[in-house]
C-alpha cells in the first residue's frame, strides 16, 4: 500500500465528512434527531447521529479504494461490512431507540462476515506469553464478543464534547499505524477509511459541540477498533487501546445497581464557575473530576491524554514484546 | 495536572493485572495451553476488576485532601 493512496483516502473521507455535516446537522434538528448538551448551563439542543456522516463518507472511501488498491481482499470487505452493519444498528438506535438488551445481540449478528473470514484462525498472541490457542472458540465466541464488547465500551465512555470522536481517532490511528508497519494492509485500510471521518467529525464534536456522534458514531468506532484488531492479528493492542473504556465500564459495574445509576444519582451538573460537579457513583470521568474539579473541556483533554498513553503503550508492547 | 494521577493509577492497575496473568500462566504449565489461557485470562480480568475498585477508593482518598501523600 503506497503512501499517496493513504493520503488520498484520508483526505477524501475527511473532506466528505466535513462537507456532509453542514448539510446533515440542520436536517437532523428539523426531524427531531437531537440531544441536549447537558453539560452547558443553558442546555442547548444539538444534532444527534452525526456519526452518519462518517458512515456515508466511508462508502466514498470504499469506492475510491477500489481503483487505488485493486485487488481488495475478501477479508477487507468482510471487516468493512461488519463496521457498516454496526453503524446501521447505531442509526436504528438513534432514530427509533432500541432496547438496551437488543443492542449487543444485533451487534453480534453484524459480526457474522468477520466470523466467516476468520473461521480458520484459532489463537491470540500475548506479550511474554506467546500464542494461546482457543480453537473454534476464536471464530464462534471471541470474534462476536470482541465486536460487541468494543462497540458497547465506546458507547459507554461518552457524553462530553469531543470525547467520542477524540478517543476514536486516537485508538484507530494507533491500530492503523501498528497494522501498517506490520504489513497487515487489510486492517490498516479499514483504519485509514474511518480515521479520516472521525478526525473531520472531531471539528464539529469538539467543545462547544455542534453535533453528537450518536450511537451510530460510538458503536461504529468500537467496531472499527475490533475489526482492525481481529483482522490484523492485533487483538492485544486492541484490548490495550480500549482500556480507558474498559475501566469506565468496570467502575460502573462495581455499583450495586449498575444500570440504574443515572435514575438514582442524576447527571453531572455544571457549577456557576463552569466546573463540572459529578454524581457520586463510580465512573472514569467522575474519578478525574473528583481528583481535580475541572471544566468539560479540561476533562475531555485529560481523558484524551489517558487514551494517548494507552495508544502509546499498545504500540510499544506490540513492537517490542511480541 | 492533578488529574493525570488517575491515568498513572490506571496504568498501574492494568500493569499489575497483566503481571498477575503472566504469573498464573507460568504457574499452570502442567495444564493444556487452552486451559492455561482461559485461567490466565480469567485471572487478568479478576485482577483488573479488583484494581479498578482500589483505583476508585484511591481517588476518593485523594479528594479528601491526601494528594500530598502520593
Describe the structure.
Chain A is built from 14 helices and 6 strands. Chain A has 322 residues and is mostly helical. Chain A has one domain. In chain A, strands 1-2 form a two-stranded antiparallel sheet. In chain A, strands 3-4 form a two-stranded antiparallel sheet. Chain A has a two-stranded antiparallel sheet with strand order 5-6. In chain A, a hairpin with a 3-residue loop joins strand 3 and strand 4 (130-133). The longest helix of chain A is centred in the N-terminal third of the chain and has 28 residues, at 3-30. Chain B has helices spanning 4-27, 33-66. With 70 residues, chain B is mostly helical. Classes of the chains: A mainly alpha (322), B mainly alpha (70). Chains A and B meet through helix 11, helix 13 and helix 14 of A and helix 1 and helix 2 of B.
Quaternary organisation of the protein chains: heterodimer
> How much strand of chain A?
5-15%
**Strand/helix succession of chain B:** HH
Mean pLDDT of chain B: 86
Q: What's the number of domains of chain A?
A: 1
Largest sheet geometry of chain A:
2 strands, antiparallel
Number of helices of chain A: 14
Amino acid at each position: 500500500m503506497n503512501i499517496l493512496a493513504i493520503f488520498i483516502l484520508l483526505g477524501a473521507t475527511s473532506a466528505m465528512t466535513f462537507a456532509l455535516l453542514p448539510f446533515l446537522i440542520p436536517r437532523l434538528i428539523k426531524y427531531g434527531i437531537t440531544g441536549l448538551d447537558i453539560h452547558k448551563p443553558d442546555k442547548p439542543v444539538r444534532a444527534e447521529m452525526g456519526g452518519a456522516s462518517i458512515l456515508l463518507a466511508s462508502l466514498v472511501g470504499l469506492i475510491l479504494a477500489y481503483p487505488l488498491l485493486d485487488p481488495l481482499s475478501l477479508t477487507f470487505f468482510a471487516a468493512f461490512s461488519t463496521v457498516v452493519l454496526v453503524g446501521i444498528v447505531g442509526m436504528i438506535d438513534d432514530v427509533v431507540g432500541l432496547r438496551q438488551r437488543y443492542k449487543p445481540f444485533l451487534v453480534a449478528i453484524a459480526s457474522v462476515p468477520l466470523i466467516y473470514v476468520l473461521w480458520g484462525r484459532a489463537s491470540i498472541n500475548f506479550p511474554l506469553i506467546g500464542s494461546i490457542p482457543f480453537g473454534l472458540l476464536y471464530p464462534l465466541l471471541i470474534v462476536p464478543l470482541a465486536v460487541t464488547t468494543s462497540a458497547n465500551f465506546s458507547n459507554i465512555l461518552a457524553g462530553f464534547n469531543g470525547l467520542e470522536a477524540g478517543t476514536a481517532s486516537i485508538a484507530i490511528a494507533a491500530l492503523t499505524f501498528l497494522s501498517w508497519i506490520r504489513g497487515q494492509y487489510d486492517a490498516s485500510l479499514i483504519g485509514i477509511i474511518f480515521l479520516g471521518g472521525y478526525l473531520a467529525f472531531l471539528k464539529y464534536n469538539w467543545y462547544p459541540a455542534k453535533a453528537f456522534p450518536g450511537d451510530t458514531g460510538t458503536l461504529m468506532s468500537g467496531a472499527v477498533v475490533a475489526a482492525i484488531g481481529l483482522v490484523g492479528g492485533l487483538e492485544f493492542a486492541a484490548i490495550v487501546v480500549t482500556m480507558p473504556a474498559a475501566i469506565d465500564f468496570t467502575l460502573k459495574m462495581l455499583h450495586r445497581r449498575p444500570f440504574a445509576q443515572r435514575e438514582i444519582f442524576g447527571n453531572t451538573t455544571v457549577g456557576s464557575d463552569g466546573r463540572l460537579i459529578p454524581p457520586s457513583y463510580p465512573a472514569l470521568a467522575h474519578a478525574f473530576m473528583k481528583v481535580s474539579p475541572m471544566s468539560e473541556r479540561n476533562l475531555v483533554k485529560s481523558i484524551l491524554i489517558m487514551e494517548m498513553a494507552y495508544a502509546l503503550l499498545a504500540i510499544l508492547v506490540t513492537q517490542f514484546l511480541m | 495536572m492533578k488529574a493525570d494521577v488517575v491515568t498513572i493509577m490506571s496504568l498501574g492497575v492494568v500493569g499489575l493485572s497483566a503481571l498477575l496473568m503472566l504469573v498464573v500462566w507460568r504457574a499452570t504449565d502442567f495444564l493444556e495451553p487452552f486451559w492455561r489461557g482461559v485461567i490466565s485470562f480469567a485471572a487478568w480480568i479478576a485482577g483488573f476488576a479488583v484494581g479498578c475498585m482500589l483505583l476508585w477508593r484511591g481517588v476518593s482518598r485523594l479528594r479528601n485532601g491526601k494528594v500530598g501523600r502520593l
